[in-house]
Amino acid sequence: MIDLMVNGRSHSVDADPDTPLLYVLRDHLELNAAKYGCGLGQCGACTVMIDGVAAFSCVTPILLLEGRKVTTLEGLGTVEKPAPIQQAFIEEQAAQCGYCIAGMMMRAQALLQKNPNPSDGDIRSTLQPHLCRCGTHMRILKAVQRAAELMRASPNTVKGAT
Question: Is 50 exceeded by the pLDDT of residue 161?
Fold first, then answer.
């Protein structure tokens, strides 16, 4: 058994310590926002935050996570009360197929927690590890800027540091 802290809740997971976090999130905890893309940490679809830092969950074995805080997209907000990053992606219609968007939102969230005033260059550089072939890149850029504005306007509503 390995104890994991995910989205502010403690979970005891019966899995091999080498199991990638992505499989535990999806198969054991039924948290399905993080997606399996490449399985090699090269596409970003599986991105979550570990202690506030973006990480590829498909290449992160759970044995490295005891005592650390994992945050998934489900931990940021709800359908009824989305987090600023989620609200901004909705308002800017930044998702097309949506497969990679959860990972992009998590990496953008990690950026905004560290840098509340990112430049377009900061955002482009941060999201560089993500592959998206849908072509909504300019909307994604606008959504991250909009999320930064929302977070600056309501700093007490910022989540993701669980």
Answer: no
Round to whole Å and give the CA distance between 152 and 116: 7
Residue type, 128: Q
* Mean pLDDT calculated for residue range 130-140: 87
CA distance linking residue 160 with residue 29, whole number of Å: 18
DSSP 85-147: HHHHHHHTT--SS-TTHHHHHHHHHHHHHH-SS--HHHHHHHHTT----SS-HHHHHHHHHHH
pLDDT, residue 157, reads 60
Average pLDDT on 41-63 reads: 97
What whole-number distance in Å separates Cα of residue 143 and Cα of residue 39?
Answer: 27
Distance CA 143, CA 33 (A): 18
Under 8 Å between Cβ of 87 and 150: yes
Taking the C-alpha atoms of residue 70 and residue 19, their distance in angstroms, rounded to an integer, is 15
pLDDT on residue 96? 83
Closest CA to 76 of 156, 159, 161, 162: 159
**With pLDDT > 90 as the criterion, what percentage of the chain qualifies?**
86
Q: What is the DSSP letter of 50?
A: E
